[in-house]
Amino acid sequence: MQIQVVKSKIHRVKVTGADLNYIGSITIDEALLEASNIIEGEKVAIVNVNNGERFETYAIKGERNSGTITLNGPAARKVQKDDIIIIISYATLEFEEAKTFQPWIIFPNENDNSLT
After folding, report:
1. 103 annotated ligand-binding residue
2. CA-to-CA dists, residue 27 to 51, 99, 102, angstroms
3. 114 is an active site residue
4. Strand-strand pairing, 2-14 and 43-48
5. pLDDT (tens digit per residue) in 30-57
6. Model confidence pLDDT, tens digit, residues 62-88
7. What's the pTM?
8. Known binder of ligand: residue 73?
């Protein structure tokens, strides 16, 4: 049997922008992607702490150490600049493997989205 488990989580980052006219996705600072083990193009779930919205999109790489967290395309309607969000990705694992799997969870600074 296989189950889905949390693979990666960027806990509580501040939205720095929302670009309705971009094709789609979420732009995430490259340093945050690496620290959380999320790759460009990976499906991610977004949870907006401010308004309770939950939706899915895919990650694209933003400038390293810029703090960029920008929702693009239709997802831009689900957030406002300065909202706090949680970004989550999931993996499908065999049940026994899932019992010992350790996800990559990071807690950036909410003020500037830095890792320090």
Report:
1. no
2. 20, 31, 25
3. no
4. unpaired
5. 999 999 999 999 999 999 999 999 999 9
6. 999 999 999 999 999 999 999 999 999
7. 0.96
8. yes
- Judge whether 58 counts as a catalytic residue: yes
Of 25, 36, 66, 89, the catalytic one is 25
Q: List the catalytic residue out of 8, 22, 36, 58.
A: 58
16 labeled binding residue: no
Evaluate if residue 24 carries a pLDDT over 90.
no
Residue 18 assigned as binding residue: no
Is the predicted pLDDT of residue 17 greater than 90, yes or no?
yes
